[in-house]
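Catalogue entry: protein

Sequence with per-residue tokens
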Amino acid sequence: MALKIEVFYSFQSPYSYLALEHIYDLEKKYDVELLWQPFSAKASGQQIQGAPINPDKLSYLYEDTRRYAAEHNIPLEFPSNWPQEEYDPSRVTRGAVVAGDLGFQMEYNYKVSHRWWGLGANPNDDEFLSELCEELDVDLGEFLSKLSNSDTRERVKGIYKRGKKLGVFDTPTFVIEQERIVGLDKIAYLEDRLIRGGHSK
């Protein structure tokens, strides 16, 4: 039986974006089942007080992510005025839940993340979701209706509450049997653990 790994990720996080390919590779190489959990305080309706921005930490984040993106040939374009001004992740986060129901969550995750961080596009612009649905061959009106309904909103809230209960504080976070493994730089450790545990295919 495949080992279940919960993947808490956020469209607001450049590290979640940069990690996508490596995360999906886990299912190709190991006997695991990835349970994708789109995690966002704002999308769940929580009012979170923003912490002061540490300029040294921010400058390192730019340096670190750009270095990783260049080494792995991943396009990276920071949205203007980020992180002082952040795009609202609510619609695309709810959309990830709907995409999971409809069976195209992987393609959705890739395309939304690439538009947001690869192209620097605003997910709340009208053309963002319309062009996305066209690429995915999904009816825009039906998709918007599903991501706006109360059930979808409650499920996003439930994912956030579950993440907080498990101690998720950053993304990507991998949860295996209640244990947290946090960060893009921990994926190599996670792979070693899967190999040692006999989960290679």
User: Anything to note?
Assistant: The chain is about 55% helix and 10% strand. Residues 56 and 72 are 24 Å apart (CA to CA). The chain has a mean pLDDT of 94. The chain has one domain: 3-80+88-196.
